[in-house]
Amino acid sequence: METLTILYKAVLVGALTGFAIGAGAARMFHTPKVQGLGSFRTLGELNSCAGDSVSHFTFGLGFFFKAWASAVGVGAITSETDHRVLPHWTAAIALMGKKNPEETLHNPKKMGIIGAIVGAVTVAFLCTTASAIPESLQVVAMKVLGPAANLLIVYVMPAIFWLAAIDAGKRTGFWGTLFGGIAQLIMGNAVPGVVLGILLGKGVDDLGWTRAPKVILTTIIILFVLSAFFRGSDLTLLTQMDINHPEWLTNLHKMVGQEVK
Fold first, then answer.
1. What are phi and psi of 59, to 5 degrees?
2. Cα distance between residue 188 and residue 207, in whole Å
3. DSSP conformation letters of 199-235
4. CA distance 148 to 253
5. What is d(CA 105, CA 138) in angstroms, rounded to the nearest whole number?
6. 50-90 tens-digit pLDDT
């Protein structure tokens, strides 16, 4: 009886979540004409698969193992399910019939309906298996699937996005490589930087060095500077170069509540 209750709730929640994610992901492609319900990360990763059904499926499958490990090990469904698994599997199914993204991936109605089905099945699987697996196996799953998923995110995903940036052209490849390297140094993961590089490079290709790409470049620089500051990367760099921290810089970090060693 308990399993049936979990299954019923999981199907209901999964269907509602999948519908919102599927329709919202499709609506992102219509901004700024309509309101987009999604995130920049989801949009960038959907674009990186270039409308290929197999690419979307394998992309989502890679993160599914991490989502499954989290569900089994700690009983929590993480954002990987919402941002990566559901939208990519929905896109993969939508593109199986027609390869034209304009009629499938960008169609909120079609993506919403397919997303509801994908969400119901996926969330039901995660929840029922998490409740059925014995506690001893949950520990094993966390120790095996968790590190494997982390390796995928740390090593495989940056390479995939970097190759996508290189394939998109010289300008996009240059900015993707530059920002990816900076993001790796500051954040420990190159993916955010490569995605920003793709956005800037394609923007320049389509619009030239007009106001919009210049605003994007300025925003990216500000984001990197703020991220480096709040992560203490500037102090770490000075320490590694064997340079004493300026007193004003140390006081500035302390003023925002950071612990300075």
1. -60, -50
2. 31
3. HHHHHHHHH-SSHHHHHHHHHHHHHHHHHHHHTTHHH
4. 36
5. 36
6. 788 888 888 888 788 778 877 776 667 777 888 889 999 99
Of the candidates 178, 172, 185, the one whose C-alpha atom is nearest the C-alpha of residue 232 is: 185
- Cβ neighbours of residue 158 under 8 Å, at least 6 residues apart? 180, 184, 189, 190, 191, 194
pLDDT in tens, 117-126: 999 999 999 8
* Percentage of the chain modeled with pLDDT above 70: 85
**87 preceded by cis ω (within 30°)?**
no
pLDDT of 245 reads 80
Sorted by where each begins, the domain ranges of the chain are 1-133
Location of structure tokens 């955010």: 192
- Banded model confidence at residue 37, pLDDT cuts 50, 70, 90: low
What gap in Å lies between CA 252 and CA 204, rounded to an integer? Answer: 36
What is the average pLDDT across 37-55?
74
Instruction: Name the DSSP class of 258.
Output: -
In this predicted structure, what is the pLDDT of residue 244?
84
**Closest residue by Cα to residue 138 from 58, 67, 230, 73:** 73
Query: What does the alpha-carbon distance between residue 38 and residue 133 come to, in Å, rounded to a whole number?
Result: 33
Provide CB contacts within 8 A for 150, sequence distance 6+.
66
Residue/partner pairs of 183-187 with CB below 8 Å, 24 or more apart? 183/224, 184/158, 185/233, 186/224, 186/227, 186/228, 186/231, 186/233, 187/227, 187/231
